[in-house]
């Protein structure tokens, strides 16, 4: 099994069974026994097709006599894989892209004529690469939707927040390859020492004790990772924890903690001197937090299985800082999880009510003058500023001290929002 077949299997599994593509991909790459080079190609193909699916379908539709919706789903995925190689991967010869797609069609299609159809469509596309049909621009929203493979409803959401030019920059960024960033475990090493351990790593341009990883292969096999000298985290999430202004000796509650990144960041800000109760509703995620803390050698973290919607009376007014990184639409991390753009928008409308309820429960755990840190990995105002406004209206004893939204195309980070609120005396 090679990279292209592995990518096809992953795309089919994600389409029919759901699941997080990254997790599916890692499992299939391991099962296929691909070397690092082939594994990297499989990943690029899988994510590239997901990122550009609408655009690929648009061009394929121009060169096919049969509508894609009438084809076998596996044949459509094979065509997308071939088209992605032809249009986006200059180092792959067109003949290799076409021939591999034809071979996959012979192996996976039930229709004996599918291979010939795939061959004809992709060869025509290959000959037309320098004169592709224009995407209609009369409807600007539809143009952006096709060109950058985002559903129309999502483009409309971004256009409410940004002008056309900046929306286009954001969508383009979503379809790029974001850098992998690692936070230095300052309890074990320094940024300089870690850079010396990791090949091709570079210091982050503005986040302290953060490095941009180069080609590392499997992280789990790196001594620096196994021995806990770094953990993976986006600079936006690290910046949010810094906003909490933690000091050694504080007592911290992280209500929606899995997989543990913000708890780890908080522990480093505490210099591992203090107490962090790190919660998740699922026992297996509690175990994940515990394993991460053990690997990093952070002793101040105590993981708990806890539903953040349910009030724990024994925790009332017991914490200096409460971190509420609430469940959200996740629309700020599309560049890392391209399948997020396929979410049904209707259930997302109910998220602000859930987020507000979680925030109000979190507030009950704070000491007077304590800090409540609210964060999401989305840029939608109704999940961010809207929730803060609704909370502030009902909780007059909280003051908003800092609020910030980060954008992939502006800041080079995940799309992220955080707000620091401080609890004062109850109003008379």
Could you name the key traits of this structure?
428 residues, alpha/beta, N-utilizing Substance Protein B Homolog, Chain A, Rossmann fold, 3 domains, 11 strands, 47% helix, globular
Structure in words:
The protein has 428 residues and is α/β, with parallel strands linked by helices. α14 (261-269) links the parallel β5 and β6. The strands form two sheets. It has a seven-stranded mixed beta sheet, sandwiched between helices. Strands 2-3-1-4 form a four-stranded antiparallel beta sheet, with helices on both faces. Helices cover 47% and strands 14% of the residues. The model has no long low-confidence stretch (mean pLDDT 95). The protein has helices spanning 3-17, 21-32, 36-51, 53-62, 73-88, 94-108, 114-127, 140-147, 152-161, 164-174, 191-197, 223-226, 235-243, 261-269, 283-296, 345-348, 351-363, 385-394, 408-411; strands at 181-184, 202-203, 210-212, 230-232, 251-254, 275-280, 301-305, 319-325, 366-376, 398-406, 416-423. It folds into three domains: 3-131, Orthogonal Bundle (N-utilizing Substance Protein B Homolog, Chain A), CATH 1.10.940; 140-174, no CATH class; 234-423, Vaccinia Virus protein VP39 (Rossmann fold), CATH 3.40.50.150. It is built from 19 helices and eleven strands. α5 (73-88) runs antiparallel to α6 and α8 packs across α9.
């Amino acid at each position: 099994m090679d990279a292209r077949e592995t990518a096809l299997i992953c795309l089919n599994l994600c389409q029919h069974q759901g699941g997080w593509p990254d997790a599916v991909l890692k499992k299939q790459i391991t099962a296929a026994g691909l070397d690092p080079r082939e594994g990297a190609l499989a990943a690029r193909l899988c994510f590239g097709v997901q990122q550009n699916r609408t655009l690929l379908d648009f061009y394929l539709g121009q060169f096919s006599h049969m509508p894609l919706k009438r084809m076998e789903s596996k044949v459509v995925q094979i065509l997308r894989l071939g088209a992605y190689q032809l249009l986006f991967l200059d180092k792959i010869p067109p003949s290799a892209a076409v021939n591999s797609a034809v071979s996959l069609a012979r192996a996976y299609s039930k229709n004996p004529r599918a291979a010939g159809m795939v061959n004809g469509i992709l060869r025509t596309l290959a000959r037309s690469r320098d004169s592709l049909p224009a995407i209609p621009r009369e409807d600007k929203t539809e143009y952006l939707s096709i060109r950058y493979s985002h559903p129309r409803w999502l483009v409309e959401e971004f256009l409410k927040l940004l002008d056309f030019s900046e929306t286009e920059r954001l969508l383009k960024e979503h379809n790029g390859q974001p850098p992998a960033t690692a936070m230095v475990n300052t309890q074990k090493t320094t940024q300089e020492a870690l850079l010396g351990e990791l090949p091709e790593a570079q210091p982050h341009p503005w986040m302290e004790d953060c490095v941009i990883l180069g080609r590392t292969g499997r992280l789990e096999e790196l001594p620096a990772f196994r021995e806990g000298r770094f953990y993976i985290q986006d600079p936006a999430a690290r910046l949010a924890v810094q906003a909490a202004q933690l000091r050694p000796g504080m007592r911290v509650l992280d209500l929606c903690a899995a997989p543990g990144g913000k708890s780890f960041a908080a522990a480093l800000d505490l210099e591992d001197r203090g107490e962090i109760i790190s919660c998740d509703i699922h026992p297996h995620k509690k175990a994940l937090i515990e394993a991460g803390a053990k690997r990093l050698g952070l002793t101040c973290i105590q993981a708990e299985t806890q539903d953040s919607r349910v009030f724990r009376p024994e925790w009332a007014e017991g914490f200096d800082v409460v971190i509420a990184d609430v469940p959200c639409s996740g629309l700020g991390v599309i560049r890392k999880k391209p399948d997020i753009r396929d979410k049904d928008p209707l259930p997302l409308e109910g998220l602000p009510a859930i987020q507000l309820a979680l925030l109000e429960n979190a507030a009950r755990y704070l000491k007077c003058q304590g800090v409540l840190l609210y964060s999401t990995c989305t840029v939608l105002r109704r999940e961010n500023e809207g929730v803060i406004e609704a909370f502030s209206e009902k909780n007059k004893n909280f003051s908003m001290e800092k609020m910030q939204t980060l954008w992939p195309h502006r800041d080079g980070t995940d799309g992220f929002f955080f707000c620091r609120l401080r609890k004062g005396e109850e109003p008379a």
